[in-house]
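Retro notes - structure team

What went well: the batch runner handled both jobs without manual restarts.
What didn't: labels got mixed up in the shared folder, which is why I'm recording both outputs here explicitly, each with its sequence directly above its tokens.

Job 1
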Amino acid sequence: MSISLDAVGSGHNQTEERPFGDVAPEDLHRWMFDTPDESRAEIDAIVSAGAYIMGRNMFGPVRGEWTGDWRGWWGPNPPYHRPVFVLTHHPRESLEVEGGTTFHFVTDGIHAALERAKDAAGDGTVHIAGGPTTANAYLAAGLVDELMLQISPTVIGGGLRLFDGVGPLELEQISVRPVSLATHVRYRVVRPE
């Protein structure tokens, strides 16, 4: 997940034209688009899962009942190429798009989405793609083993923050690698014994 130094992963007031709401995408993702060769290993790791989970806001700006034919922010060929389970309160038929990505819309909570993603991933990993609200729900429930963070050298000041409402959490640093536009950090979530 890409965050600012103050842990903002997205802004408020999301629209179709502004996927990160009040936060400019370049504030969080310049490392990925301006200097991708510096971060090839991290980009590859992000898209290496056997299945993904994301919140409805990460999938798109549509609120309430589904209307229209919204197919996600990524165009006709999203980067996932695997099953993606989208948390929502409103049912929708699964959406198959190019490249092997199928979005499945899960209305019965984070545990059900995780079980479905684990089944779909087989021996592969499940990545919680975000956004911050979804990541926080899984962290608060004790369902995250590892965090991969891309920390952009910017302070945004307001928005949706990673770790909001999570409570105390002990992390063990696995790796850290600075590049020109981010610091890539991996943490293992330490479980109380």
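Job 2
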Amino acid sequence: MTNSAIAVLDIDGTLIDSNYQHALAWYRALRSVGEIFPVWRLHRLIGMGGDQVVAAIGGDDLERRVGDQAREQQGKEVDALLDEMAPLPGARDLLLAIKERGHRLVLASSAQERHVDVFLDKLDARDIVDAWTSSADVEASKPAPDLLHVALQKVDAPPDASSVMIGDSVWDVKAAKKAGLPTIVVRSGGFGDDELRAAGAIAIYDTPADLTEALAETPLA
């Protein structure tokens, strides 16, 4: 079992249908500090860690002026939208299928701890997964590879352990590439197949359910 590839899964957008709510939460948070950006531009950044979104959308000066305030408000906006977020089709079944194949399983999330707790409950996953992460575990989030390194540490695996990332955004793929992990992607992140493949995705599926059906064709066979 310990020689099997370790499955490292993103939660937001990959297992939980939450990307569009996060984009709206960022829009509202930034608007609360007097900054308005098109929601479509914010959506393009979802999957990137919250510590990097403000600078990515508005530059380093905006980050210095309102970054902490915007992040705090964004967390509150997400709190208000949690009831609208639900597991994507087949999300829990994917976790079960991976475990049944003998793989260790880590949920690598850069979400705030209280949100990760809610998502774990929505997935009823606490007794399935071996470990999970949150934003509290790293200083630099995706597309930096730090979160994936921590995810492997959570299961006492070395950085070069045989591992596979499952995500939904180019930011997942880029982080995994830096960490040396191949990435399988579901389309719920809203990115085009060409973008995902250009970033390095090795396979793309519509939903977790579709990936479950095709597991035998992946490195998690």
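One thing worth noting from job 2: Strands lie at 6-9, 16-17, 86-87, 105-107, 131-132, 163-167, 183-186, 201-205.
We'll revisit the folder naming next retro.
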